[in-house]
Hints:
The protein is an alpha/beta fold. It has seven helices and eight strands; from the N terminus they run αβββαβααβαββαβα.
Amino acid sequence: MKTLTRPEGTKPEDVHLSRRALAGAMFGGYAVYAFSAEAAPITTDAKGLITEMVDLPASDRAIPAFVARPDAKGRFPVVVVISEVFGVHEYVRDTCRRLAKLGYVALAPDFFVRAGDPSRINDFNEIRRIVSAASEAQVTGDLEAAVTFLKAQKYADKSRMAITGFCWGGAVVWLAARSKTFKAGAAWYGRISAPKAGDFLGEPNRVWPIQLAAQIKTPVLGLYAGKDAGIPVADVEAMRQGLIAARNTKSSLVVYPDSQHGFHADYRSSYDPSAAADGWTRMLAHFAANGVKPKAYKIAD
Length: 301
């Protein structure tokens, strides 16, 4: 299987999925399209945690979401986790469990439920259809539903809320940062500028982070790859300059020069353990610096 080096899951010609990879993804709960035959994904157990599926009260329907949280009394800081284009599959759920082990309530909404389940599909054109159906207005509404749900839970500290996202979800983090709902955000290789017309998510009515640099209110840590075939370093630098021009000193961007798109995704061949660990450490420090810190805070191994 070829390395996935583009944002939003690459293009169909980039990938040939082996039977072994297909079986590994299907039985392991990972995204079928992107699972690497050589992958050895991280597995985080649920010991000491409560994990469950919940319904979020969106305006048109209930939205399923995965929650992982400490099995203990008290209110815990929150991290909303935004998935890649492949939906809330095992990698996303494991990321939630990792955060819960550190003392967070981690919630991952299914933004694609209205159109399908991209994690089970081996046809990128079908994944593209499902993801493209999630408009900015719908995603914003679903995020509001997630926040409404969390604020009603006795285990969630609504005064300490952060957001993180990967790939498609990384761009969502930047868009969500226009409000002060979250105290901190971490965007992992989220697209910054618009794709070409006709390309995936290239519809002219979509808004992209580079257009919003002056509107960012939530401090965002952007984590990017120097060898990302779909997000050039020039875009990252343009976003950096936009934040500087807006005198946004609480947001920052980091580029891992030798990494590829998806470097945190341990089920892909683009996984870079060193960059993933460094980015994770930076993310936790960024959350803590902005007040989203568990009482028993510690840096992940």
